[in-house]
Amino acid sequence: MNKATKGTWVEIENVVLEVGQRAPQVPKDTKNTPLIMWTKGLLIDKEAEIGQEVEVETLSGRLAKGKMTDVNPRFEHDFGKPVDVLVETGISLKKEIGGIR
Amino acid sequence: MRDLTYGAVMGRKNEIMKKAVGIDYSEFEFGKIGFDYEKMMNNVAYEMEDMIKIQKETKVGNTPLFELHNINRLINANSAEGKGGRIFIKDEAANASGSFKARRAAISVYHAQKMGYKGVIAATSGNYGAAVASQAAQRGLKCIIVQEVFDSQKKGQPEIIEKARKCEAFGAEVIQLTVGPELFYTFLKLLEETGFFNASLYTPFGIAGVETLGYEIAEQMKSMQGHYPDYVVATHAGGGNLTGTARGLIKGGAKSCKVFGASVDLKGLHMASDRDFNRKSFTTGHTGFGIPFATQPDRADVPRNAARVLRYMDRYLTVTQGEVFYVTEMLAQIEGIERGPAGNVSLAAAISLAMEVNEGEIIVVQETEYTGAGKHPMPQLTFARENGIKIYRGEIQENVPGETIVLPNQFSQINAKELDLNKMKERYIDNVTKGYKYEDLTEDDVKYLEEEIRVDRIDIEKAMNK
């Protein structure tokens, strides 16, 4: 979904510091990237498309402006894939304790 | 219109902080480097009885303390004759928000409400965010959590993303940033914009909030076993967990109990590096925070950090990422409880310790944390593999942070390493006495250092003249 209407839960992006504005103590690889911030909130504009500058009201009641980067952003973290070393660890520990295997 | 450029905002740091914390730290400072830590804790924080009451109001504290019977059987089977301690674990996942951090947040948020602040802000990628959000939800305060979560490709640590979800579940605003210490700039701007309370991890409120944990351990152990624990092992990162617990143990009467710190060894990884950020599998509880915070506590987001581990830490143990994943799996597979890996750092160290102490001595692992999507060995190891980390079973010495995660083949391989506390104390002296000679220090400064890191003045003088 690329479009959102007023009241939709969206994510916005801001560049906090450009490359060249980074703090002196930051390591080189990080210095070559901008510091970017993402905020979520309810869209205030009547309608907007991803990539447009918009305004949102956040959950703490602040108004924040930025480039809209996602509409109804989904949490995609999960329980991952089965991991062989964990399966093997379980089996070997049950053997050590004199359990069922 | 206020100047919101980086330099201008950082220049207003002290002024912003004073308003957002409400503590005038200069009241406690003296001499060239000294400050009256106990006076600060006594004047600013709350009494034990009050804290227990405050925490009870918001579903915090009085968590269970279990003996880990099956793990203790393995300890017994793998220890030499006459050796083999018993491990008990304090199930802090039972607090509202699922970690001991609720104890810190409970006191901070209570105080913010009492002082009339409309909301609270915390800069944290850890469990503390959810803790503040949960407490703010209960006390009707607004809440903003600022996280460092993504690399420059917007790839985020699953563990931190889960914590963002949990904060939003409690109705908090979550602000997410790419890697870099300039998070502090965003944090200051938000404090100025909102006028909210800085629910810092490092205020006297936050640290005193953990004292109830040590206090409960002393009381519970006494009633279960008839005596205080011999050792308590606490995961160490910013220092609040260990400092608060140790103070609570003393207040609870367990004065001779040894307190050990434990961190995951992440040597070689730079905490502010865009590349290294996603090459680690622990976002807290590691040496990347543990060593700098021990040797320079006042690097925190308040002028004087109330977490000062060298006052309390008797030994500092490190474990590998592989060992922590191994014991997390062990806790599920033979003890029947699933808990988050980051909370099990101290468990890995405790198992190692248990095999070296005398038979029957009691070791308390003072925390667990909740587990869930993203915050669990499976997603964390899946993510590590996707980032090119080699994962296998073998010798724990083969663990190389950022390159490999090696889980032990068997229980007896668990073997924590010891960091030299004397070296850390020397580094502390270097850090706080920069620009001064020993002769420049006042008598009170020297007394302060003696108490702060528990060494004699001869050693302080020696270290400073090196």
List the helices and strands and how they pair.
The complex is a heterodimer of chains A (101) and B (466).
Chain A: E1 3-5, E2 9-17, H1 28-31, E3 35-43, E4 47-49, E5 53-57, E6 63-71, H2 84-96
Antiparallel strand pairs in A: 1-4, 2-3, 2-6, 3-5, 5-6
Chain B: H1 6-11, H2 13-21, E1 29-30, E2 34-35, H3 37-44, H4 48-57, E3 65-67, H5 69-77, E4 86-90, H6 101-114, E5 119-123, H7 127-139, E6 142-150, H8 158-169, E7 173-178, H9 183-194, E8 197-198, H10 204-225, E9 231-235, H11 240-251, E10 258-264, H12 287-295, E11 315-319, H13 321-335, H14 345-354, E12 362-365, H15 377-386, E13 390-394, E14 404-408, E15 417-419, H16 421-432, H17 443-453, H18 457-464
Parallel strand pairs in B: 4-12, 5-6, 5-8, 6-7, 9-10, 9-12, 10-11, 13-14
Antiparallel strand pairs in B: 1-2, 3-4, 11-15
Helix pairs in contact in B: 4-10, 6-7, 6-10, 7-8, 10-11
